[in-house]
Specification:
This is Phenylacetic acid degradation protein PaaY. InterPro entries: Hexapep (IPR001451), PaaY (IPR011974), Transf_Hexapept/Carb_Anhydrase (IPR050484), Trimer_LpxA-like_sf (IPR011004). Pfam families: Hexapep. The protein has one helix spanning 147-170; strands spanning 3-5, 13-14, 19-20, 25-32, 37-38, 43-53, 58-59, 64-66, 73-75, 80-81, 86-88, 91-92, 97-98, 103-104, 109-110, 115-116, 121-122, 127-128, 132-135, 140-144. It has 199 residues and is mostly beta strands.
Amino acid sequence: MVKVYEIDGVRPVVHPTAYVHPSAVLIGDVIVGPRCYIGPCASLRGDFGRLILEEGANLQDTCVMHGFPGEDTVVEVDGHIGHGAVLHGCRVKRNAMVGMNAVVMDKAVVGEESIVAASSFVKAGMVIPPRSMVMGAPAKVMRELTDEDVQWKSFGTRQYQELAVRSLHTMREVEADTEVEPDRQRIAFDADGMHKPKA
């Protein structure tokens, strides 16, 4: 059961097509849109400002979303937030990506179809232009993204949108096996890297 908490009479909203892992924590003014994926141990604290994940966004394992009072923290449509990232009072625009363990601070804007490299630190108030690669601590714009870069990012996001569906339909808590069974099955993917359901 997902850990969902009301505070000051405000409770989270989760669209029925979104998947939220049971170990994630949602507090207060949190809005999770359609086809979103929220991974294990993510923390969404809407106890100061509003937190919004728009359609198809993903927030992976151990990510943190928070913000100052009266300020929204937003991940727009198809936003992609890698493992361990921290978003604080910022906006991640449509089809943008924040890499693993990166930090994006207050009033920063990650431009549409941009990528923040893993472990980068985006300072408060930084506005990243669309289709930019930023990296470093503090983060700096390094180059413009190519069509191939954006396609790569978009593919990863589609995998997480598919994972939301798979998780809603097939993930369940079980006891671990004590031995590896003969002919142990693998989770199958096709040549394009998309999940291949069992026949």
